[in-house]
Design brief:
alpha+beta, Env_Response_Regulators (chains A, B), four-stranded antiparallel β-sheet, DNA-binding transcription factor activity (chains A, B), RmlC-like_jellyroll (chains A, B), Cyclic nucleotide-binding protein (chains A, B), cNMP-bd_dom_sf (chains A, B), Jelly Rolls, 31% helix, homodimer
């Protein structure tokens, strides 16, 4: 079954300010309070959980959304692999986007469902 | 950290028609096409995945939402444990609720995030 493509491009089109990190810089650490999700505009970011690399993210992808959706400390550490430009999206901005753009909320729901399925296949 | 309570009660307040099942009746089977999620109005429902019971649901709880959010065949079988009254919510009704009620979409996002955390704790 083909998965419908998910479109999160409006996160990059919202005209929000960017933030630059140099290679090897820590973006956030496990245990940090979550204040934003981050969209990768350029460069590459690794997410570490304990000693595992659990994700490598490139342009157009985002991370840190789970702690933002349901407030909790970061449970992974995000590190710039290369020089990186990110677009931070605050909780307030995120809630505004979800409220005004149901298709974004639906695509985010679909993303989470696909992650759940990838973990255990349960309905 | 206390989890904020999630409120899905509007699914029961939408005035949608109910559907009755008798004890031991199959509501849907693994592999079935998904046409609705079901809210339990009364009684108890078990979800089986293979030979495991993966969930037991009571009044106010719902099931079958994952296949509805992201179309896919049912990956579990739902069986009425007692006589049961359910409220089926079609994809069209579900999309309408998400579009008109951002707080519902947000609570559903939170539910999925909590499930993901329960599985592997990753951010």
């Amino acid at each position: 079954m083909a998965n419908a493509p998910l479109d999160f491009s409006l996160l990059l089109k919202a005209g929000l300010p960017t933030r630059a990190y140099v290679a090897d810089e820590v973006i956030f650490r496990e245990g940090d309070k979550a204040e934003a999700l981050f969209v990768v505009q350029s460069g590459s970011v690794e997410i570490h959980a304990g000693h595992r690399v659990v994700a490598i993210l490139g342009p157009g992808e985002f991370f840190g959304e789970m702690s933002l959706v349901d407030p909790a400390p970061r449970s992974g550490t995000a590190i710039a692999v290369t020089d990186v430009t990110l677009v931070p999206v605050s909780e307030k901005q995120f809630l505004k986007i979800v409220s005004e753009t149901p298709s974004f909320a639906l695509d985010l729901l679909r993303l989470f469902v696909r992650r759940l399925r990838a973990r255990d296949g349960y309905y």
